[in-house]
Amino acid sequence: MAAIYLPTLKQLQYLVALHDAGHFGRAAEACFVTQSTLSAGIRELETLIGVVLVERTRRVVRFTPLGETIVAKARRVLREADELADLARAAGRPLSGEMRMSVIPTIAPFLLPRILPRLREQYPDLKLFLREETSGHACESLNNGRVDCVLLALPYSCGEVEAAPLFDDRLFVAFPEGEMDAAALAIHPDDIDEARLLLLEDGHCLKDHALAACNRPELRAEATMLGTSLYTMVQMVDNGLGVTMLPEMALDAGILEHTHVAARPLESEHASRKIALVWRKASPRERDFRLLAEVLAEAG
Q1: Which residues does the UniProt record annotate as the domain HTH lysR-type (predicted)?
Q2: CATH superfamily of 95-166+274-299
Q3: Which position among 10, 226, 245, 266 has the lowest Cβ density within 10 Å, counted as fewest Cβ atoms?
């Protein structure tokens, strides 16, 4: 019987890294190997299966149609391999070993400083590696196996996932002092001037949560969407350029300190977002994720 030579996980890792980076040097850095090692590994893979997967030129790395198909399958194989290791970890101590978590930018700087010290104290054997990325990229990372779980704001469609709700995060209207009724207990959506509304740019789910809470279709058409972070939005409001929406956790973290910006709750039926921890369905580390969610909910 003829010997069957199968691709190695390392070769598949190199191929997927090259696809993600689009550049041999950056892919090699991501894999912590030299460029020549990565290139040789991919050539060995091509020789093994007898087809060209990557067209190489001086300026462009282009995957062949078959290469694209094999990359998609390689991602699934690597994810399954990770889950084999997860099975072993799940049988050991709870919340120990490595865990990769994506956190969206409208949560990370406000919640992480509160939760990380508690995690270190209660679970010192947990090595939590964090990625900050927008909701769409975070869900893509989860479904492709680059991360194990995501700290996300719902509602948001993230694919075939399980979710553990942590807490509700109210939305506030932030405005230059003196521009709106600072004595009001809350701001109604009808009181917001659509020509003055500043929101985060596309890719940030907080923008969609804010617009949905206001339930005013004209706001989507008229609002200016250009902010890349909530800190940037606050600076623009502080300079009199308009009003914006902020989550309560950002206010609790002191985002308005040393500014002349006031904030009042948004008076609306759905004036909040739900903070949740999400992970892939049927993950062998579900017990760990639910335990982590309990810790996050207590800290939140």
Answers
A1: 7-64
A2: Periplasmic binding protein-like II (3.40.190.10)
A3: 226
